[in-house]
């Protein structure tokens, strides 16, 4: 008996040592069988070798869609394929398997989806509405940003002209009233456009900064106009009033021609 027990012990030791020499980790299965231990990667590779793709049947409304997909794909990848079939955005899809909604990050093989498995697809109405609102919000933000950039380009040349008038007035140069009125009118139009723009967050700060900038230029022109009123002789004022009337009539005529 002792001899047999010793022989059995030596035999078991030889089995373990053999497993170690081959470089593989072993595990003892129920019944005393010693086998090579399989990790998840080896399982996945062997499964892939046996069956890399499966056919699943998805019911959406009254229609059925048969899709061939990798057995190791995620539900999210399956949703992307279903989008091509149904036109339903992946974020708006509710994919059910065995009466339970499956997460997009879950894998088909892990959730035991097999060849010939049946799934049911529903549309997430609330998700679609949220996504549409978010799309509209982004589009509106992009439009506001574009409008503010365009206004900034419009203000730049006007700002240079205001600075030029201010510099000329500081050296004693007589500033033409026509120039002051024209610049003021253009800046007022821009100010009205800015007030009509709805902005949020960073864009709201950008809008407020542009409003302050335009208002500052208008205030500068008002100051130049008041100084001019005090210093310009009446004779020059009378000539300029005639120029202004002529300029107004040209503007009105131009507008009528445009409408015609």
Automatic annotation (TrEMBL):
Domain of life: Eukaryota
Cleaved signal peptide residues: none
GO BP annotations, alphabetical order: protein stabilization
One cellular component (GO) term of this entry: cytoplasm
Domain Ubiquitin-like: 52-121
Pfam family, one: BAG
GO molecular function (one): protein-folding chaperone binding
Basic and acidic residues: compositionally biased ranges: 36-46
InterPro entries to which the protein is assigned, alphabetical: BAG_chaperone_regulator, BAG_dom_sf, BAG_domain, Ubiquitin-like_dom, Ubiquitin-like_domsf
Full protein name: Ubiquitin-like domain-containing protein
Organism: Arachis hypogaea
High-level lineage: Eukaryota, Viridiplantae, Streptophyta, Embryophyta, Tracheophyta
